[in-house]
Amino acid sequence: MGAVKKAVLFVNLQKKNSSCAAKEISAELEKRGIEAVVFSFEGKPKEPPSGDWDIGFSLGGDGTVLYTARILAPLGIPILPVNLGSLGFIAEVEKSDWSCVFEKWENSQINPSRRCMLEVSVQRGTQTVMRNICLNDIVVSANRIAKLIKLDVCLDSTALGSYRCDGLIVATPTGSTAYSMAAGGPILDPEMEAVILNPICPFALSNRPLVLPSKNALAITVAQNQRSGVLLTIDGQDTFDLECNDKICIQQSPHPALLLFADKHAYYSALRTKLFWSGDTLEGLC
After folding, report:
1. Does CATH number 3.10.20.30 belong to domain 6-115+256-282?
2. Domain boundary assignment for the chain
3. Alpha carbons 80 and 89: distance in angstroms, whole number
4. DSSP annotation string for 131-187
5. Residue 270's closest CA among 209, 187, 182?
6. Integer Cα distance of 163 and 257 in angstroms
7. Which fold has domain 118-252?
8. Residues 21-77: pLDDT tens digits?
9. Which residues are identified as catalytic?
10. What digits encode the pLDDT tens for the residues 79-100?
11. Predicted TM-score (pTM) above 0.85
């Protein structure tokens, strides 16, 4: 890779010590001759900066990484996710370790982890009324509590069936440890190219989560005569109100999120720790 000249820092001010971390990282980058631009936000971010960046830093928790990925992944810019939150399934790099990870990437000692992202659009009649991308998941649900909705689902030109449920989750492998896992979905290796189709509280117990190839396109159509409004949620952050007969089209983005970690296998260590899989029986297995 060429010399790193410009960096952008996405800083979530709702996280403790985020301002101090941003100043520390910016100062260190500038010592190395790297221009650093800080984009700070609290709550819903405003319009992000634009520029020809070589690297982006996400300073916050997993939600900050999701937002940063939606901005930088289409530009092919790698992201160093610095964890200032608590859970950190995606934001795996601790603040004390960022410099080590950065140097390894700068010296071509590590490659970015390529994470599948999804493109989503909504067709209403002959018009496309919404477009977005996601790193974690796309959720179609009733906008009122405990209301069943009916959704018709196709994989390419093959009908998968009609779902009567509280909603549907379409999750990436990265998002398999988020809402989908809480709804009983499987956990996937984060670098797989696959999607999870997971119904939320389905009326028919035979409706189970499916793991599908990400190369195939999914289409979810909102059926007629819904008793409740229907809501589309992207990465738990962006929302869009749906109408009857709206068609949600989902396909793999040609631009994966490029995340920088010191050790790609740290994901499994995080699973063991955060899901309490560790125990005496694991000693000496590897």
Report:
1. no
2. 6-115+256-282, 118-252
3. 14
4. EEEESSEEEEEESSTT--EEEEEEETTEEEEEEEESEEEEE-SGGGGTHHHHTTPPP
5. 187
6. 31
7. Tumour Suppressor Smad4 (2.60.200)
8. 999 999 999 999 999 999 999 988 888 888 899 999 999 999 999 999 999 999 999
9. 62
10. 999 999 776 688 889 899 999 9
11. yes
